[in-house]
Design brief:
The complex is a heterodimer of chains A (140) and B (265).
Chain A lengths: L3 H6 L5 H22 L4 E2 L4 E5 L4 E8 L4 E7 L6 E7 L9 E5 L2 E7 L4 E11 L5 E9 L1
Antiparallel strand pairs in A: 1-9, 2-9, 3-8, 4-7, 4-9, 5-8, 6-7
Chain B lengths: L4 H14 L29 H11 L4 H4 L11 H20 L3 H17 L3 H16 L3 H21 L3 H25 L3 H4 L5 H12 L3 H4 L2 H18 L4 H21 L1
Helix pairs in contact in B: 2-8, 4-5, 4-7, 4-8, 4-13, 5-6, 5-7, 6-7, 7-8, 8-13, 10-12, 12-13
Classes of the chains: A alpha+beta (140), B mainly alpha (265).
């Protein structure tokens, strides 16, 4: 995913589609910006796609004990509401902190064990049928 | 066939509760086994620097000792070049840890050369230029970002060329070299906390599945076959308590595979 390009491969590629994708990434980067100032190293890679209301996407993610992570999601759709939460391999919610502000949301994990975790994103409300989203993460 | 309606209603209710909208109050627990496959995305492969970051917190590894000079030959098969590209980028992260400006610059040039060999050099040209520029100004965080971006750009370009399998091999090449370095550092100064970083069975399984589902022409490749066998050997070592002996063995196996990647290209 940064795989947006794959998604676009199935669609008629219009300039406006690119703009939407780019805007979702911009929003996600906007959400994580304050953590950069706190010393988190943000990956220069993004994950995303588009979802209908109350649809979810699960992104498996390897995390390492000792690292402190922030995962941020953003969408370009005005008045849309997105969420992001992190579960461990046993399905237990393990985030240490999280927040949700309209089209932005974030979750923090101070990994207590190395292993596979599951980032679950959801569009909880949106004026549009499909809502573009993007997640970025940083660690320190 | 007799239809058990109450049971169907009960199951549907449970399933619906399992995946009900999280809203602002996330469920404290979910049943991952019931996640619909269509909701599952590809595994995010971590950067070597995410593991190196923890090792830095647990001690002061001698990163210069871990640096090596891969043989860059851009005349090999695409499979081999993809694997080598991943391992060279991983080497870049080691060079950043070692604060080795010249090695970083050489790696930037190597990434460009290898990308050219598989026809995706245009996508990484600006990245590789920035790697050199940022190396000159000792912008180590910036270099990591460019290496990460170059990796993502190369993989995206491969996917655009309908070569997703090669993109997976780039990731695998990076993981193998990263794991070789991590096991080397852990082996030199073993502790349970350091060894815990090798609890990567989920990621290993992901790579094994990627190789197993590759088209026969790729699975039949001698190098891919060798890597598949190597991963099969590492798998039981990672699935149990990771001892100094298993760390050493994983280091040997990954070292041999990285050597094979370098010598085949």
């Amino acid at each position: 995913m940064r795989r947006f390009f794959l998604l676009l491969g199935f669609c008629v590629v219009l300039p406006s589609a690119y703009a939407t994708v780019d805007d979702a990434i911009s929003r996600a980067l906007e959400a994580i910006d304050s953590y950069v100032k706190e010393g988190y190293i943000v990956r220069d890679d993004q994950w995303g796609g588009d979802l209908g209301v109350e649809e979810r996407k699960v992104v498996p993610h390897m995390l390492f004990k000792g690292n402190d992570y922030w995962f941020c999601i953003g969408t370009d759709v005005d008045n849309a509401r997105v969420t992001i939460h992190v579960y461990d391999s046993k399905g237990k919610l393990i985030e240490n902190d999280s927040w949700q502000k309209g089209r932005f949301a974030a979750a923090r994990v101070q990994a207590s064990a190395t292993g596979m975790y599951y980032i679950i994103v959801e569009v909880t409300s949106s004026p549009k049928e499909r809502t573009s989203w993007a997640i970025v993460y940083g660690f320190k | 066939m007799k239809i058990n309606l109450p049971w169907i209603i009960f199951s549907a209710t449970i399933l619906s509760i399992s995946f009900s909208a999280f809203g602002d109050s996330p469920l404290p627990r979910i049943d991952l086994s019931k996640l619909p496959a269509m909701q599952l995305d590809d595994v995010v492969v971590p950067l070597p620097s995410e593991v190196f970051n923890v090792l830095d917190k647990l001690g002061t590894p001698n990163w210069k000792d871990e640096l090596r000079t891969p043989g860059i030959n851009n005349h090999g098969a695409r499979v081999q070049i993809a694997l080598l590209l991943g391992s060279v980028v991983a080497e870049g992260f080691v060079a950043v840890e070692a604060s080795d400006k010249e090695r970083v610059k050489q790696i930037g040039r190597d990434v460009l050369e290898l990308s050219r060999a598989i026809g995706v050099e245009k996508t990484v040209l600006s990245r590789t230029n920035l790697i050199v520029t940022k190396a000159n100004s000792h912008d180590w965080v910036g270099i990591q970002s460019e290496l990460d971006g170059a990796l993502a750009d190369v993989k995206n370009a491969m996917m655009e060329l309908k070569d997703a399998q090669l993109a997976h091999l780039v990731s695998l090449g990076g993981w193998l070299r990263g794991t070789e370095v991590v096991t080397s550092v852990v082996h030199k100064n073993y502790s349970p906390d350091r060894a815990d970083l090798l609890n990567q069975s989920g990621l290993l399984k992901y790579f094994q599945e990627r190789l197993a589902t590759m088209p026969p022409r790729l699975r039949g490749n001698q190098l891919v076959n060798k890597i598949q066998k190597g991963l099969d050997e590492i798998s039981p070592l990672i699935h149990q308590k990771i001892t100094p002996a298993s760390v050493e063995r994983i280091n040997e196996v990954t070292g041999q595979l990285v050597k094979a990647i370098n010598s085949s290209a």
